[in-house]
Amino acid sequence: MSDNILARVTHTLATEQSLESLVRQLLEMLELVTNMESTYLTRIDTDAQIQHIVYARNSGDMTIPENAFVPWDESLCKRAMEENFFFCNDVDVHWADCERARELGIITFLSTPVHLADGSLYGTLCASSSQRTPFNLNGEQVLQLFASIIAHYIEKESLVTQLKAANAALLYHSYTDELTGLPNRRAVFEDLNTLFAHARKVDCRVTLAFIDLDYFKAINDLYGHHCGDQFLQQVGQRLFAFKHEDGLVGRLGGDEFLFAVLSTAVTAYPDFTAALHEQFSGDYPLTETTIHYPGASIGVVDIDPVTTDVENALRAADNAMYQDKKLRRKMQSPWHIG
Question: Does residue 255 have an active-site annotation?
């Protein structure tokens, strides 16, 4: 390998880039070393028996079409692998019956498999020409080196993708209540701070509702925690359905939930508090039975985010909820389940 190519490869590997960018640079260098008209990377789907030309570089009259698909049984690469014959400069004679090679005008063909670390076949790295080109040991060595580089990069990209997906999943779970799918306490506090900051920016008040599910312990005690979980899930669904696009909902833990929205949004409700109460009352079909739930205790407060921070706003909503709970106990008859 010439010092110039070596320097280019070193520089290419030292820079952060996508697989496509890396491969395109390697294909260009491969063309220089092999003196071939076309260089290309393929991917092989053994299940579908298809070979996909992923990236290609064409500098002469012959064109290997990028993004083309070739039946694996008709591929030169498959024949080369089966015969362990990776260089041929008389394709028109040695593989005279290969229709694909004849259509593309391939006379000289050089390829090598791209194997991943687990031994699986990713695809092939190839160079071809419509002219008879003598065997080039340097070109073969570079081809194999580039195939190894590409395989390592594919594995690196795959690992990065897996790590990103795992991180996203962890982040999602760290901000999501596992039972209801609503934002959890941590997410609620962060989202509230964001909502309050936005409200200050647009000079708007915030309506906050602290929700405590009355009689939840009785449901658990009588029907078991699995029914209690179903009840909480349905409460979460009802609360989410009530949510305004500019607001937020979440489960603080246990039987406590929170609803918050810019105060301008609640003007759509003739009586916001009554509408929220109505959202939670009614029939809840559980595994063991269907219960008619009288509703939750809800503390609704209207907050000026300029003078009241999130912590004090929550305290005010919690106090309002306890006042509502006292009032409901005085006005309601004892609730019996079953």
Answer: yes
